[in-house]
Amino acid sequence: MAVYTDITEDDLKWFLTEYDVGTLLSYKGIAEGVENSNFLLHTSREPLILTLYEKRVEKGDLPFFLGLMQHLASRGLSCPLPLPRKDGALLGNLSGRPAALISFLEGMWLRKPEARHCREVGKALAAMHVAGEGFAIKRPNALSLEGWQGLWEKSEARADEVEPGLQDEIRAELDFLGSHWPKDLPDGVIHADLFPDNVFFLGDELSGLIDFYFACNDLLAYDVSICLNAWCFEKDGAYNITRGMALLEGYQSVRPLDAAEIAALPTLSRGSALRFFLTRLYDWLTTPAGALVTKKDPIEYLRKLRFHRQIASSAEYGLNA
Amino acid sequence: MAVYTDITEDDLKWFLTEYDVGTLLSYKGIAEGVENSNFLLHTSREPLILTLYEKRVEKGDLPFFLGLMQHLASRGLSCPLPLPRKDGALLGNLSGRPAALISFLEGMWLRKPEARHCREVGKALAAMHVAGEGFAIKRPNALSLEGWQGLWEKSEARADEVEPGLQDEIRAELDFLGSHWPKDLPDGVIHADLFPDNVFFLGDELSGLIDFYFACNDLLAYDVSICLNAWCFEKDGAYNITRGMALLEGYQSVRPLDAAEIAALPTLSRGSALRFFLTRLYDWLTTPAGALVTKKDPIEYLRKLRFHRQIASSAEYGLNA
Hints:
Two copies of one chain form a homodimer. The first copy, chain A, is of the alpha+beta class. Chain A has two domains: 9-103, 2-Layer Sandwich (Phosphorylase Kinase, domain 1), CATH 3.30.200; 115-317, Alpha-Beta Complex (Aminoglycoside 3'-phosphotransferase, Chain: A, domain 2), CATH 3.90.1200.10. Helix content of chain A is 40%, strand content 14%. Chain A is built from nine helices and nine strands. The first copy, chain A, has helices at 9-16, 62-74, 115-131, 145-155, 166-180, 220-231, 241-254, 259-286, 299-309, and strands at 24-30, 37-43, 48-52, 92-94, 97-103, 187-190, 199-202, 205-209, 216-219. A five-stranded antiparallel beta sheet of chain A has the order 1-2-3-5-4, covered by helices on one side. The first copy, chain A, has a two-stranded antiparallel ribbon with strand order 6-9. In chain A, β2 (37-43) and β3 (48-52) form a beta hairpin. Chain A binds chain B through residues 1, 3, 6, 8-10, 24-32, 40, 42, 47, 104-112, 200-202, 288-293, and chain B through 1, 3, 6, 8-10, 24-32, 40, 42, 47, 104-112, 200-202, 288-293. Chains A, B: Pfam families: APH. Chains A, B: This is Homoserine kinase.
């Protein structure tokens, strides 16, 4: 949750004169997203989301994020659509921050997703991968091999505070992934953060994907492995093969994985588990005690990493050959 | 801002089966209020506010707060209206908290109110005082003389950390107010917290009052003095007599103050300045450093208190006899 920047009604009204959106009726800061300030606007026409981009977001990346949403929506994916200003720009300025107006997507994220929801998520992820084709702007993944190395260097010295032996284990993992990371798999635009809170449902129907602020160019199957980690484990750390099977079936019903992608899935899953472990570990070690931010336990992703390490074949994820 | 309790879609849907509100389309935690968790719901019919009452709110007070909003709305005041459940109750239970569904009020609060807005606030406050007549439930003001004494005892020992000499000054003030506090003024239901963020406007028109969770029975003119403190001072601490005059004129156009109320206004204003000084002082001294809560500077209200202390006659507030 986050509202970092307050805005005055006058500034907001001035900002809105650049858009064709009717009359402003109300705006509320909403507890959504951790990187930006988000407001839900009611207007005489339709509800809108106003996003103010805070410092953690690289300004130079905004054309990629906003352009991508526009590209995906124009190709039929249900996702928030940035509204162009009267001058055609997707980005304005409000309270000293880059700011965008974005369509409001009805729907709710599922705190307890089941297999049938995982199937829909798989389908939507594949649909996004297909819809992302032809998007002109590129953004390399800052949180891949090299980025992990950098993150690890900031946490390494204190890692054994979280669990004794962690220093050696993670260093070995980084070495393994450095020498076994797949090359030449199909790549494209990936979401890279498709956790349950970024997928909306209305009833059992998936109503849209949100939060493209980690999106980048990378291996498509890596995005699948992120979803396996995010959607297919129980609270107690056990892999739920029913959900995994549903997610993979849903994905393949839209975009079948090739043999090399399937073979690489355990390694990719180790990588994505490590990626979330490392950001959580860093936050865990650097967030001051008493801060009102929920620290996510890095151990959850350490357990997932260890699970993937003992996988002998992708069939164990529930993949039907 | 505050969302203390998260709710699952399933629990919320179950909760909503007790109401006749159409289909749930979305819900967002909103950054509003400091005592409770608030969610903005979109349904197939109309937007609603869902409030979960957190520990700081006394459960026994909820029938007063919810009943009051219903009473005021039924008498024409624009304020949030609690929706009755199918069984007639105004209060349900969600995620282990007492919870209510309340109508959503369009409008925005003004970060920089001007005199014309203060006039509307004065009118609305008086209208609330009139509309509150006949409300059957009573709630004494926990933050009057006795409550101040209790708050002060918790902060007294460390008060000089904020400003040297404060211990003696506040003790003398409490003594003065204890012996000069007016009796026998008209009383009734007061809002007791009508700050700018609790008054919504659409353009220059006041669209409603919100947040009745400090409402109680007390002297009506005390509520006026709270508004003078909340609306009629500049950021630099100077009293803005134009705004004060407008607020008092607006109030008296609906409910004229009697001679005793007018005479008591400086003393009442000292009391209300002290009341907000004391709660802010307490929060200031007890909120841990590093907590992501904005501490409100108690000094602001100390300055206001000192201003009121040197007022010789209520005419200095801009009161036209």
